[in-house]
Amino acid sequence: MSQEELADRANLHRTYISLLERGKRNPSLNVVQALARALGTTMTRLVSEVEARLPRK
């Protein structure tokens, strides 16, 4: 899915999606919810998948 399509589905600006992907912005819980819905998943699953990809300290 392109940034533009995700932005459209989540009702967000595509530039904001790019900033999120690059770690330049941190999403609010409302944005996480909108992204999860746009991706057809839950907030829990979305955050879990992202967390699993983070390096362990």
What would the keywords be for this entry?
single chain, 57 residues, mainly alpha, 434 Repressor (Amino-terminal Domain)
Biggest sheet character: none
Number of helices: 4
CATH fold type: 434 Repressor (Amino-terminal Domain)
Shape assignment? globular
CATH second-level architecture: Orthogonal Bundle
CATH class: Mainly Alpha
Strand content: under 5%
In total, how many beta strands?
0
Number of domains: 1
Along the chain, the helix and strand elements come as HHHH
Mean pLDDT: 95
CATH superfamily: lambda repressor-like DNA-binding domains
Q: Estimate percent helicity.
A: 55-70%
Question: Segments where pLDDT lies below 50 for 5+ residues?
Answer: none
Alpha-beta classification: mainly alpha
The radius of gyration computed from the alpha-carbon positions, rounded to a whole number of angstroms, is: 11 Å
Distance between the termini: 31 Å
